[in-house]
Write a structure and sequence with these properties.
Elements (H helix, E strand, L loop, with lengths): L1 E5 L3 H5 L5 H8 L4 E5 L13 E3 L7 E3 L1 H14 L4 E11 L2 H7 L4 E6 L7 H7 L2 E4 L9 H12 L32 E2 L2 E2 L9 H19 L1 H11 L2
Parallel strand pairs: 1-2, 1-6, 5-6, 5-7
Antiparallel strand pairs: 3-4, 8-9
The protein binds adenine.
Length: 232
């Protein structure tokens, strides 16, 4: 899978791929990344990529031409590119989206800065718009990294142990049951003893119950969905 980042500030993103799982995924050719800076494509004689909003409003918007030229340049060599704009008005990104998008060949993340992007560019190029939550960031870069990370770990071979994906939170809308490692006693607290007795069907039933209680307590909204599905 190839990920292209359209951003004025690639250095914000680059560091994220220098360690751990994603760095390994690049080394083993499971993913590749590249960067495109709209400032390199601007036709403005002062190299500008932003302009005040028409009709008033505080702040500047990213102008259409540099972004359009950047994206056209990417599309010239990659007809299958799937273009995602990061914006607080997009639909909220979920684990299902991460899994679905992990099957694409090439994803392009377009990050806005300033007060956002001229709407005409979004209309022309966006396959999807995503938000990572109901708050406003200073730009889309952080959101593009969140999506890229969540998508990448669903690509075959990116996680050392792919069975980590089997029992994760958000599978069937449920949160994962509590997990423990050594020591068995820590600060006067024990691990759940049934976990250590080797009876796998008992452990699996228990985890199912704990997963339900945890979802009910921490995410009553998800719990409602699970209950509705059960009653269908
Ligand atoms: N850009 C600014 N805020 C954002 C958010 N919450 N999600 C995605 N992109 C953004």
């Amino acid at each position: 899978m190839k990920f292209s980042f359209v951003t004025l500030f690639s250095s914000i993103i680059e560091g994220y791929f220098q360690d751990s799982i994603l760095s390994n995924a690049i080394k083993t050719n499971k993913i590749s990344i590249d960067f495109f800076n709209p400032r390199d494509y601007t036709e403005d004689k002062h190299n500008r990529v932003d302009s005040p909003m028409i009709g008033g409003g505080a702040g500047m918007l990213m102008t259409p031409q540099p972004l359009s030229s950047t994206i056209d340049n990417i599309l010239d060599t990659s007809k299958k590119a799937h273009i995602i704009f990061l914006t607080p008005v997009g639909k909220k990104f979920t684990q299902n989206d991460a899994k679905r998008l992990s099957k694409k060949e090439h994803i392009v993340f377009v990050s806005g800065r300033y007060e956002g992007i001229d709407e005409r560019v979004i209309e022309q190029y966006a396959d999807e718009l995503f938000s990572i939550g109901d708050y406003i960031l200073t730009g889309g870069e952080l959101a593009s990294m969140v999506l890229c990370d969540a998508i990448s770990r669903n690509i075959d071979g990116v996680l050392g142990n792919s069975s980590s994906l089997d029992e994760e939170s958000y599978e069937e809308s449920m949160l994962e049951a509590p997990s423990f490692t050594k020591p068995y006693e820590y600060n006067g607290k024990s691990v759940i003893l049934d976990y250590s007795k080797g009876n796998h069907s008992k452990i699996s039933d228990l985890k199912q119950k704990l997963s339900m209680s945890k979802t009910k307590f921490f995410r009553p909204d998800l719990y409602q969905i699970v209950k509705q599905e059960e009653n269908r």
